[in-house]
Amino acid sequence: MTVQTPFQTTVTVVGMTCNHCTSSVQEEVGEIAGVRSVDVVLDSGAVTISSDRPLARPEIEAAVVEAGYTLA
């Protein structure tokens, strides 16, 4: 049996002001292939992504932009 350790990536998202904002970011980033979980901290804008593979900044940025926000 092989146990894979997830990769973790943390980025900062600018412009989130409410729980709806965090939900939008979680939903869009969660649709990236291989993403296991997305944790968002509203106050700091920190978004921590656990995934099965390394994620490239451009693919994360595309998902964040789709949600209506930008990366710092």
TrEMBL record:
Keywords: Metal-binding. Residues 7-72 form the HMA domain. It comes from Pseudonocardia oroxyli. The keyword Metal-binding applies. CDD domains: HMA. Pfam families: HMA. GO terms for biological process: copper ion transport. The keyword Metal-binding applies. GO terms for molecular function: copper ion binding. InterPro entries: Cu-bd, Heavy-metal-associated_CS, HMA_dom, HMA_dom_sf. Coiled coil: none annotated. This is Copper ion binding protein.
